[in-house]
Structures
1.
Amino acid sequence: MFTVEQIESAHGKVKTGADFPNYIKEIKELGVKSFETWVKDSHTEYFGENDFKTISESQYKDLAIADHSDQEKFIQQLKSHQRGETDYMKFCEDCAETGIEKWIVDLDQFTCIYYDKAGNEILTEEIPH
C-alpha cells in the first residue's frame, strides 16, 4: 500500500490550487481511493483497498472554524485558489473563515465535497482528470 511519506512527497509539488489535479492523479496511482482533510489542522485520513487507512500529522496549529458557512464567499476564495492566487495555508484559513470544516476527495468519482461543521454539503466539485 501507500505511505503518508509518499503522499506528502507528491503534495510537495503542489504550489497552488492549479497544481491539484496532477497531485490527485499521482496519489491515485499510489493506490489512494479517497481522503478526508480536516481544515482545523490539515490532518488527513487516506483510504485505500481492503480497508487500508493511514493518517497524516497535523500540519499547523488549530484554526477556528466559523459556526456558520458562507457558501458564496467560499466559492469566490476557492476560485481564487484554483487560479493560483493563494497558497495552501491561505486556502485553509479561507475555509475556516467561511465555515468549511473538511473536504472529502473521492478518486474513483473524481469529486471533492466540502462540508460545514453540521455535516452539510457546501459544494461538490468535479476534479479535472
2.
Amino acid sequence: MPHARVWRVFYTRPRNEKKVAERLNDGGIDVCLPLRTVLRRWSDRKRKIQEPLFPGYLFAHVDERERLAVLQDDGVVTTVSFGGTLAEVRNTEIVMLRALEGLPKSVEARALDAVPPGTEVIVTTGPLKGARGTVEGSPKAFYLFILIESVRQAIRLEVPADWVMRTGGKAG
C-alpha cells in the first residue's frame, strides 16, 4: 500500500533552490518554492531578481518513495526534521506561501494608531485571507509577522491596514 503524499521540507545546497525545483517539476513532483523580488546592487548596475523567501529550503508534495527519490538529486542535502521527526507542512501553509507571490509588488502602508505593535490579527481580504499574524511597526509602516510553524520560520510582510482585523473582532 503506497503512503499518502504530504508536503515535506528539503534543505538544498546554497543557491540551488530554483534548479532543484525545476528538475523536480520536470520529474512530475509538485514543488512549492516561494520567491520574492529584491533589488540587488552591484558596483556597475542594479537589477531586480527573484530569490527564495526561505533560502536553502524547498517544499515538495511527496510520498515516502518520492521523498527518497528527491534525496538523490545532487542539489538536495536532506529532508528537514525536528527532534527526529520529518517536518510536514500543512496544506493551509502551502496555500499561504503560494499566495505570497500574488501580493502586489508595492503596497502603500496606512497608519495604524488603533492597532498597537504586538496585537494579534487575522487577514480578512487579499491573497492571504485567513492568515494570522502579529502587528509590528509604527504609524509610518505596518508589518505583519506570520509564523510558518512547520519550518519554524516567520515571514515579515508590509500589508495595508484595511486587510486585517484584530482577532478579538475589532477592525484594524
3.
Amino acid sequence: MIKVGFLVSYDFKYLYKSIPLVYDSSDLIVLAIDKNRQTWSGNSLFIDPAFFEWIKEFDTSNKIVIYEDTFYIPENTPAENDTRERNLLAKAMGDGGWHIQIDSDEYFNHFHKFVSFLKENKQFLKNPKSNPVEIHVQWITLFKKVEGGFLYVKGSLDAIEIATNYPKYKYMRATRHSKKIITKFILLHQSWARDEDEIYTKITNWSHRDDSDNIAFFELWKSINLNNYTEFVNLHENDPGKWKSLGFISENEMDNLELEISNFQLLKLRYKKYLIHFMREKLPSSIQEKIKILYKKVIL
C-alpha cells in the first residue's frame, strides 16, 4: 500500500500543484492540519475554506483524509513540533505499507516511477520493525522566481529522506534507520522561490527558525537577481558548501524537470549519508571533525 502524508500550513496553496502529482499512484493521502490554526512557532495561520472545497471536488476516488490535531506545543522548539507532527501523521496513516511524507511545497513530477521502485522492493514490507529502511531522493531547491522562470540550486548534494517502511521519526523526516537507500528520483522544492512576504512568514515559523541568522540570509536572497546570480557561490545558510552555485530554469522546463544525476554524485551522497549516520552514532566530536576534513579533501 502506498500512503502519502502532507503537512498543511501557511503555504497550503502549493498543494494545488503537489497533490495532483501523487494522486493517481497513491492508495491513501492524509493531510495533517493544526486544528487551532497555529504554526510550529505558535503563530496564527490561515487556510482558505476554498481549499477544502477543492479537495472535495478533486478527490474523485475518495482517498484523501483530513487529519486535524494540536501540533503546536509551546515548550517545544519548532523542530521538535515538526518531528512530533510527523509521528502523529504516521499514526493517522496507519500501520503497514510504504509511508511517504511530502511537504506542501514539494513536487514529485515522476511519482509513478518512484512508486514502481517501491513496489519492486516489497521485501522490506514483510517485517519492517526488524528490517527498517529509509528511502532518499534528490532534493532540487528552487531559489528564486525571476522573469521567465526560476533560479535553482545547481549541482547540490541535497538528498532528502522521503519514504520508509517503519515510520518512527527522530528528527523531522529523518528516521535515522541504519539502512538507507539513496536514489536518483527527483523531488523539486519550491523552498525560497516565493514572494518576499511569504519568505518572511516561512523563516519566522519553519523548523529551522533557530538554526541560523535567517534574516541575514533573507537580505542576501533579496539581493540576488537574474543579472547577478552567477556571482554567488556557497550559498546555503547553514552549510555553505552544500549549495555551490545557482542555475536558471524556465517555467516550461520546471514541469518536466529531468536533471541528470551522475553516478559519482550519487556515490558522494551515499558516502556522506552513511558517514553522517556513523559519526552521529559512534564517534566523539573531535574525531568527527577530523573525518569531515578528510571527507572534503577526498570526496568533494
4.
Amino acid sequence: MGAIMSAARDYGLDEDYEWPRPPAGGWTADDLDELPNLPPHTELIDGSLVFVSPQTRFHSRAMLLFETSLRQQVPDGWDAIREMTVKLNKRNRPEPDVLVVREDADTGPGQTWFRPEDVLVAVEVVSDDSEERDREVKPRKYAAVGIPHYWRVEQNDGLPVVYVYELDPMTKAYVPMGIFHNRLKLTVPFPVDIDLTAVDRRR
C-alpha cells in the first residue's frame, strides 16, 4: 500500500487514487483518450498502460533542443512537435519525445495522436526507466509500421549522444547510420545541423 501511495504522489495524484484496472485483453489505443485522471504522458504498449517517471532536467532540455532545432530546419510541408502519441495499432500508442510529422496531419487544437504514415522521424530521449523500451521495444514497433527514421538520444556527461537509424524497407528493421557526439549533422531525411553542446544554452 505504501508503494502505491508513493507512486500516486509521484504523479501528483491523490493518495486514494484508484489505478485503472485493465479489461480482458488489455486496453486499446482509443481507450487512452477516454480513461479519466491518467498521469501525464501515459503510453500504451502491448495493451498495457505505461506511466513515466518524473522528468529529469536533461530529458526536458534535450526535448526542447530537438523540437526547437527541428522546427527551424524541417522542409516545407513538415513540422516538429514534442510529446504527442502515435497510434501504431489497436494495442500500441507510444509517445515519442519529439516527432517530425506532415504539416497537413494537423487536425486541430484538440488532436491527441498521429498516424504512423504521418511520421517521418521519431526521437526518444532515454531515461533510466525507459532504457529497454527506447533501445529495443519502441524501435522494433516503429520499424514494423514503417516510420522511416528513428533517433535515440542518450546522456553522456550531461550532453546528448544521438544514435541515428534508418528503416530498411525490405526487412522492416532499422539500420544504424551513425553515432553523433557534440554535433548532429545529417543530409537524410533532410539537411539537419544541431549543436548538441547547446543543450543547456538559453540563447
